[in-house]
Amino acid sequence: MTDFQADIIVVGAGLAGMVAAHEAVARGRKVLLLDQEAPQSLGGQAFWSLGGLFMVDTPEQRRLGIKDSRELALNDWMGSAQFDRHEDANPRLYAEQFIDWAAGPMRQWCHDLGMRWFPVVGWAERGGAQAHGHGNSVPRFHITWGTGTGVVAPFAKRMTEYAAAGQVKLGFRHRATDLIVTDGAVTGVRGDILENSTAARGESTSREVTGSFEYSAEAVILTTGGIGGNHDTVRKHWPEERLGKAPQRMVAGVPDYVDGKMHEIARSSGAGLINEDRMWHYCEGIQNWNSIWPNHGIRILPGPSSLWFDAKGDRMEAPYLPGFDTLGTLKRILQAGEHSWFILTQKIIEKEFALSGSEQNADLTDGGWMDVLKARLGKGATPAVEAFKKHGEDFVVADDLETLVAGMNRITPEMPIDLTHIRNQIAARDSQLDNPFAKDAQITAIRGARAYKGDKLIRTAKPHAILDKENGPLIAVRLSVVTRKSLGGLHTDIKGRVLTPSGAVLRGLYAAGEVCGFGGGGYHGYNALEGTFLGGCLFSGRIAGQNA
Asked: Could you say which DSSP state residue 200 is in?
């Protein structure tokens, strides 16, 4: 690549990196795009996602009778973010401007690039029970046709076209190990060239070094992701005072190359990092029976009907219900142990269980309308869910509660649960179904969910008795913490420029995506509203590419 003189070096060929390169090329800038993985991994983590985008007041929402607005979305965001630190000034600015974009030109910009959306808008992260607090007041989770691959594809196609036109140079298997700093400004990148790899996307690749590189440019943009694949680093920054002690057993929701090493490389070059204790890990993780990366975990995307029990066998109270308050539920789970349990019926799993990830949703990723109707409304759960039910080490299926609890205790003999205690709690819940009114908050939530036609159609089962054999068999699922996103990182201003610990601009260095907490060093604050990870990559990638 000695004959290619870049104006901008982008380190990290995931979604944010490609968006930054796309915007830079639109300005006539020549871009060198580096990544430590091989060409088959172009697109990074976003490829594996469900493809959900947080958008506000869209045609998809309006067709479903959802009344949304910038004002309502901003209220939800700020109630969820709970910004309370001096260094939250830039994250707050990013949040406000992201809401403006999500309620304004975002959908048309994505549409012009070729993205389209499933017409039923998902209602994710429904909140902690108060209107001024955490959660989405209305459904805003727009699933892209093609899932994560459908979000990545327009940019991957453009990177190939730009490379052919000489506007972008793609440098795969280039692992950045150092930023070059000249007179207080970042002027380039140096690192190792790794041996070629034919490993499939997401699999671990060789770290054998075959050479070195050093490139200079007017600006460097870091888009290297978070720390979720490095559990030692996750535990190092784990906020024990807020969430409780970090679990020793976690499953990995991201490949092992998501290791956070660039955070320390940037820090040693003068960059400031903020909000490193803010992170987003899910409670509904299960071990992938058909793993791609080490310790591969998959998140269950549950509807509201599964009964959720902590490790001691106590049913969790509202708002710690499936799909409502991720971090609040995580804290509640860790008060009792490291794992938790869903107990449900075949009717619930058929209607309500979905799995996160492009590879777990073939109908939405590779299929069309007929595939979706067959998978979501046909007999049985989706093929991916049924495969986990059959092969997954965390699943127990039984015709009666005695056999179910015995199977649960075989999985976690260190924390057995009491059959009578479980039976009494489920029976009490079932007794609330005899009237159209109830004091059980979860039953009230189920009925509220079914008032939304999207949930009633494909996401929420009709309320029924768990212990009635006609609704069986019974199913229990052991749930582990699955690591996912960093909500803090490199401190950036609203132009994407990385700041020093004192708040000064570190000239020549920009950041986008998860490495900067998706903007500013943590534009989510303490809580994410979902669809805001991919959306944050798009938004912050645009800003960095437009300003570098």
From this structure: P
Residue 422 contacts residue 309 (beta carbons within 8 Å): yes
For the domain that residue 314 is a member of, what is the CATH number? 3.90.700
Which are the contacts of 269, defined by CB distance < 8 A and separation ≥ 6? 178, 179, 181, 186, 506, 509
129: left (phi over 0), alpha (psi -120 to 50) or beta: left
407 lies in some domain: yes
How far is the C-alpha of 281 from the C-alpha of 528, rounded, in Å? Answer: 10
Give the pLDDT score at 372: 66
Q: Structural domain of residue 443, as residue ranges?
A: 282-482
Provide the whole-model pTM: 0.96
Confidence of residue 459 (pLDDT cuts 50, 70, 90): confident
- Tell me, yes or no, whether 363 lies in a domain: yes
Domain count, the chain: 1
**Distance between CA atoms of residues 200 and 197, nearest Å:** 9
pLDDT at 61 over 80: yes
**Sign of the torsion formed by the C-alpha atoms of 200, 384, 415 and 308:** positive
3-state secondary structure 15-41: HHHHHHHHHHHHCCCCEEEEECCCHHH
Q: What is the pLDDT of residue 375?
A: 63
Residue 496: inside a domain, yes or no?
no
Does residue 390 sit within a domain? yes
Q: Is 106 helix (H, G, I), strand (E, B) or coil?
A: helix
